[in-house]
Amino acid sequence: MKDRLLSIGIVGTVVSALCCFTPILVWLLPAIGFSVFIGYLDIVLLPALAIFILVTGYALWRRQTQ
């Protein structure tokens, strides 16, 4: 369970960071017909990035204490 939580945190952090700091979603969303959601990307991606960073930190802390 510890390794699974850590891998979820790391993968989520990397994906959120890529979507926040590169225009991947700005190119992808109009290509699949969801360009209406481009205005809401910062509202969703920045909290998701923060949550995944916290999950990664918690998993690392839990791994160290056990």
Write the layout of secondary structure elements.
Blueprint: H1 2-21, H2 24-32, H3 41-65
Walkthrough of the structure:
- The protein is mainly alpha-helical.
- It has one domain (2-65).
- Helix content is 82%, strand content 0%.
- It is built from 3 helices and no strands.
- The longest helix is centred in the C-terminal third of the chain and has 25 residues, at 41-65.
- The protein starts with a helix and ends with a helix.
- The mean pLDDT is 88.
Briefly say what this structure is.
The protein is mainly α and 66 residues long. The protein is built from three helices and no strands. 82% of the residues lie in helices and 0% in strands.
Number of strands: 0
Number of domains: 1
**Compute the gyration radius: what is it?**
14 Å
Individual helix count: 3
- Overall geometry comes to elongated
Question: Whole-Å distance between the termini?
Answer: 12 Å
- Main pleated-sheet profile: none
**Order of helix and strand elements from N to C terminus:** HHH
Strand content: under 5%
**Multimeric state:** single chain
Average the pLDDT over all residues and give the rounded result.
88
